[in-house]
Each structure stands twice: as C-alpha cells, then as structure tokens.
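Bug report (template v2)

What were you trying to do?
Predict the complex of my protein with beta-D-galactopyranose.

What happened?
Run completed; filing so the output is reviewed.

Input:
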Amino acid sequence: MPSLDDLTRPPGRPPRLLYGGDWNPEQWPEETWAEDVRLMRRAGVNSVTLGVFSWSRLEPAPGAREFGWLDRLMDLTHENGIGVVLATPTSSPPPWLGRLHPETLPRDEDGRTEWWGSRQHFSHSSEAYRRHAAAITEDLAARYAGHPALTMWHINNEYCTHDWGDEAARTFRRWLKARYGTLDALNTAWGTDFWSQRYADWAEVLPPRRAHYLKNPAHVLDFRRYTSDLLLECYRAERDIVRRHTPHLPVTTNFMPFWSGQDGWAWAAEEDLVSVDVYPDPRDPRGGQDNAMIGDLTRSQAGGRPWMVMEQAAGAVNWRDVNHPKPPGLNRLWALQAVAHGADAVCYFQWRQSRQGAERFHSGMLGHAGERGRVFQETVRIGADLARLGPHVAGSRVTTDIAVLHDWHSWWADGPDGAPSRRVDHAGIVRAWHRALFDARLPVSFAHPHHDLTGHRLVLVPHLHLLDDTAIDNLTAYVQGGGTLVCGFLTGVADQDGRVRPGGMDPRLRALLGIDLLQEWWPLDEDERVDCGTFHGTLWSEELTPAAGAETVAAYRGGELDGLPAVLRNGRAWYVSTLPEPDALRELLAAVAREAGTGAVLDGLPEGVEAVRRGELLFLLHHGRDPLTVPLPGRYRDLLTGALSTGTLTLERYGVAVLEETP
Ligand code: GAL
C-alpha cells in the first residue's frame, strides 16, 4: 500500500517533511497565481491541496467539464517543485445538483431541508449524489493520473453530514437488515417492548426523528453507527475510483479532531495515511495539551506510522464566538509539536486568506497583511524549521508504554439523554485523563479495546461505558498476562446494544476490578466535590462494595459514602469511582505508571515544558511566554539552531528545541 513514507522518504532523495496547505486559487484572478507560487517557494512550501471546493467550477453544468484552469495550476505547481494533494470536490455539490435532484439534499431531525448556499449539503444516501460524485471523481482521476505534480488523493472534506430524510430511511433499513437479519432480532436488540415500540414491519423503522420525549437509546446508537458507515461507503466509492487510476498514490480523507461523528478506527483502516484537522483555541491554556492529544490519537489511528496535519490555522479561525489570533510563536510551537507527536506533514487551511465568502476572516498562511505581515513571516520561519528537521525526523516513530482505550461506539452509547447525569461528557473525561498523563510527561498512545494490548505496560480506560464481550475478554487476558489496568467510573456498564449488564457492570469486569456489588451511582453537581481523604473527587461518586481481597486505596470521607472506595485496587487492576481533581489524577496515574515500570520522558522539567521522544530525538516544547531554563541529562545539539548545550538549555517564549544527543 502506498503511504506518506513514499512521499517523505523518496528513494534516492533526502527525507523531508511535507509543508503547505489548501490552496483555492479559483477564488482569485489568475495573475495572483504566479505570486502565490513565488511566495510558497519563499516559505518552503512543498505540497498544496487543490480542488477541495471546486465542483461548480469543474462541472459548471450537468456533465460539462472545465479542466483547463486546473491543468494550468497542476503545471504551475510542478514547474515550481510543489506536489499536489488533489481533492475530490464532492463535499460541496454545485447548486444545479440540488435544483435537479432535491433528494440529494439532507433533512434534519425535524424534516427541514439543508439547502445549497453553504457546503456539505449532500445526503450520503442519495443515489443521484453518489452517481454524480463518482462521475466527476472518475474524470478527475483519469485526467490527472499521469500528471507529475500529483502526489496524493484527498477524498471529500471532513465527512460529517447527517440525514434523517426519506433517502436515509431507505438506507437505514438496508443497513439494519444487514446487521440484524430479521425484525425480531432488531426488536430484541433495541428492547422495543419498552414503551410499546415493537416494530411489525420494516417500513415502520425510521431514522430517529423528532419525537415527543426521550428516544430509544439503542435506536440512536445504531443511527450513529449507520451514519458513520454510510459516509464511509461514500468515501470508499471515491477511493476505489482514484485507486484504480493511481494504485501507486496514497489516499486519505481529513478527520475533524477528536470528533464523535465517525468511527475513527474503522475509517483509518480504510486509508493509506491518516490525516486530521486541528484547531485548538489559542486562548485556551490547555490548547497545547489538546494539540498533543489529537496527535497521539491520530498517530494511534495510523497504527503508529507517521500521519498528516491536513489543516490547522496560521492565526485566528472564524467560527468561535470570539476568534483570537495566535500570539507570535504559537503557530510555530503547535506545528513543531505535531511533528514531535509523529506528524510527517504539516499543512494549513489555507494558503492565502480569502477576501470573499464565509471564511474571509479566517486566517491563512498568507494573510490579508501580505508578504510583510507577521503571519507570513512566521510561515517562512516554520518552513525553514521543517526543512531542517526533515532529514532527521521523517519516518521515525514515537513509542509509548501506556495506552488509553477509546471507542467511538461507546461514545455514541453514552449520550446525555436519560443518563444518570447530563454532566458526564465522554470527551471531557478522556481529555481529563490525557491531561493527567500530559502533565506527568508520560507518553501515551490510544488503542481500541479489541487491540492487542500486550505491548503496553499500562492500559487506561477513562470511560468506556459500552464494552462488548471481546473487549472484556481482552482486558481480562491483559491483566492475567501481567499488565496493569486502570478503569474510570462507568466502565463496562453496557453491552454492544447499550443494554445494562447484569448487576450494573459486567460481572467478569467486577471480578477483575475487585468489586463485589455496585450499589448506586451518586453523580455530583457542578459545584459539588467529594472528600476522598488525600484529594477531592468531582463529577461522580459511587456506592460500591469491594470484593474480599480488594484494597481500598482511597476512601470517601463523610457524607453518604463515608468509608467506601474512591480508588480500589485488586492486584494490578484499579478502579477509580470518581473524577479526581487534575493534580490528584496526575499523581495517581504517575504512581501506578511507576509501579508498572514506566515513567516520564524527562524528570525535573519546569511547569509548562513538554518533552517528547520521537525516534532518537528529544523534543522540548515550551507552552508558556516567559523564557525558562531546563535541566538536561547530557550534552545535546539542537537541530533547529545547531547550538550545543550541556546541563541546561534556555527556551524562549513558546520555544522549541529538537535535541540530538552528542558524545
Ligand atoms: C475545516 C474545513 C476547512 C475550513 C476550516 C476553517 O473544518 O475543512 O475547509 O472551513 O475548517 O477552520
């Protein structure tokens, strides 16, 4: 299978990192193109993504083709040594498609149509949409298959649409028939005897549309599975077309960061390389951790291989309530941080900031201030940094002893409706656990609960409400085989249909974790904390009876749960029945990691400095504004500056050092 490696480590040429972004030259007069390319060369850009939103240009009327402008762009980039990631334009159909085929337009939960005039107004289920998308993809692939500028395919853009309409009802039934075979099996899986929901005919089965009160959670869970799968069908159809024309080129589609809509494991398995769009809030003090977490997750989806930042912002975005720019240095820090976490390609949305359209206030690598602007100066600097690092970094791996288990199906099953607490937010809990590891400088990967876990010293389950039997067997075997496991509250409560396990938590899991009886859940209010002796717990607490032999490591103090376990251990299996405050969770996980035989990348670092090992290199990343001196365990050369340091190193505001140990 072709991969990112083929592009970043071309045989006979020095390894390099890809650098560039979405380029939308069709929005500009052609005179601008030469200027764009000149500035790209100045900035060291070696890769651009073309055509993401160009369907109405390429096919101005049904069946018409206008490729001349794209031909000229492909030639221009090639003449300038810039590779092209060519996008299929299918995420924004031209207005004529919706006019001629209104059934291509998706419907929301209330039956309202999503019209053209923005983007992503297509139904994954529409045959007309799929037919037209395939036709333009076919012609695009046929035309450019042999073009020397073409390096990679980018299918669609951030697949994220939903459809509750009639087209979707048809494919939902098709999907359910394939999953369950019979209506009886569906009725059993969904528990439709509750509230008289039993289906007598397939025609009665609909997407979970607006309803009077709480919906059937199993119905909602399957709709989310189905939506992910239907979008994946659309991706596969286009991927297979381009593969037929260019079997030697990698194919990707860009994920949104840590987003619930797609089963990220299933999707990544269908890609030659995994790419993601990353937009932490520059004002968020935890933005750097967010960036790290997306990197860890994407690298893990890629099976540990190098991955691609398909999009990030050089400055402000335009879709938050208040859109802050990136202060000087932050763009560079986060770009190099992605490389530290295993990225071999660092790209942006977008190259030149638009003057028109919905994103005219979204930053670009080349902003409205132009060539003399600060943002462009930083674009140039980052390009130079990446060019320096490429030969040392491209293709190398980040390895970790710790795995955090994550599964989209559990996320989907864990919705707030009808749950013990609306405050339990799946993503928030995973973030909190990742934060503890990030702050303790413990390198971490993510894994699916079915993955082979034996290579990890420590496996963490922050919050997997849904665990199927295979996952439970896997966790049990992992601990029996000598692994250390820490589970957060609400682990393994439900089976694959979202059905609560006997006793409120799977009995095999209870045996593993040393829980005799799970009596009651005691969720906490926003301003509520529980005293756990040496720390405070938030969000959640539990009334549980430990099994004989299990050790209560921390107990609730006072209140209804006085003396009951907040942290319980049963040999190498741990259970945390609350969400400890950040420092406490950090200390707890660091202590368990130590016992499991793993530790921080580097000890003694000042707060705010992150250390990551990639291959033989040590990245130090300073997430703060005040210069800092960092202790070093030896003598190192900084690949970015060439400077040698022994014993200590000074990091400037948002400073980065990429260190190679020298004798
Ligand atoms: C992404 C999208 C880009 C652009 C960007 C703005 O979600 O793929 O096309 O809209 O956001 O931040």
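What did the reviewer find?
The first helix runs from residue 4 to 8. The domain at 609-661 is CATH 2.60.40.1180 (Immunoglobulin-like).
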